[in-house]
Amino acid sequence: MKHPNRCRWVMMATIIAGIALAGLSGIVSGAEPIHPMFVLGAVLALGGVVFGVITVRCPFCGHSLDLHGFGTEYCSYCGEKLD
Ligand SMILES: [Zn+2]
């Protein structure tokens, strides 16, 4: 899984899943006391951000790419085509 656009999708999905899980936990069991599911969701969302920062990079020059936006075709640093 080296393609930055694919990694970005995984990152988005992980963050959304984490937020959904944390939100669901808030709805189901309330904010007090903090439910393990809320913590899990928050960790998942944070993990998604970390994953994105680490993996959404140009495979040619290694420069980190924009985390938002979809389907980056060319690296904005070295100009290489990304797929
Ligand atoms: Zn590049």
UniProtKB/TrEMBL annotation:
The chain crosses the membrane at residues 40-60. Keywords: Membrane, Transmembrane, Transmembrane helix. This is Uncharacterized protein. It comes from Butyricicoccus porcorum. The lineage of its organism: Bacteria, Bacillati, Bacillota, Clostridia, Eubacteriales.
